[in-house]
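dude i think i finally got it to work??
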Amino acid sequence: MTQGPAVIPASIDEVTPQWLTDALGLEVSAVTADRIAEDSGFASFLYRVRLTGNDELPETVIVKLPGTPEARGAMEMLGGYRRELEFYRRVAGRAPMAAPRVHVAEMGDSAGEFVLVMEDLAGWTNADHLAGLSMAQARLAIAGLAGLHAWSVDPANAIPTDVFPNLDSPAAREVFLPVFELAWPVYLEHAGVPVPPSVAELAERFTDYASQALDVLGGRTMLLHGDIRADNLFFSGDAMKVVDFQFTCYGAGAADVAYLVSQGLPSDVRRGHDRELLREYLAELARHGVTDYSFDEAWRDYRMATAYLIVLPVITLMGWDAMPERSRRLCLELTRRAVATIDEIDALEAFA
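look at this
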């Protein structure tokens, strides 16, 4: 990572040849920027920037800047931009789970001022979250998560506890839980499929169930990706790189696995494989030296996390009127997958 510039650009218009020259330490004579991933629900703006100048420059880089004022406010409250920068500064390139190379990771005086300049993964295959992961892709992601989780509990890799929050954070309890109750009717209005009785029970008492889940899931100190969506995964053969660390936090590793499997896999691909995939995750943890996470404990965590993490696509539906059509379809589909998983694995039994 290079030494970052003193000035944080407020928009892509300020990412000039001179700014990039200062940021990258190589002469940049011209730039062309194109917005990408506009309908993917990112809390940031992403740009592919083509560089002209020094022969050692990459042909293109990705520049990540804060999103809309609404998204920026949410990310400031959740500390999302700072979490991502800290991940690239302290974890990326050290933990086994691969991430893009970052050239610049800088933050301004406020929590809403930040910039990332990173490797362009244009030559890699970006998973389509709406279509869902294949089983082979899910297994690669589970192996990567196990590597990150195991790395993070090794005392040699200790990170100060105030750098990343716990999954059981005040923001989760004070923001996510109340908003779920407001957003759930939006899902019911547009879902187009009936809700099983178990999920109706969960939704009716979501604050109670979610509070219990957070009590449990916050009890471990594994470093979680926190938002391991399919469209945050890039593949090249058997290699994988992961992006978007704005929800990185500490907690029980099975929570990452539950989110990936329950919402990242199409229901007909996932059905009947939840326990199998969790056992594969635990085997990978053991391969990295972590053997104190039993299947019974992990299965409880997996079921609780599946029930709680339905909150993420549901609360996004609060913005229904302003959402692009693809984002609407995506949030509905992710919620449908979560609903199906909660019902099929008897998730509420974990709370008994």
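The CA atoms of residues 135 and 269 lie 7 Å apart.
im so relieved honestly
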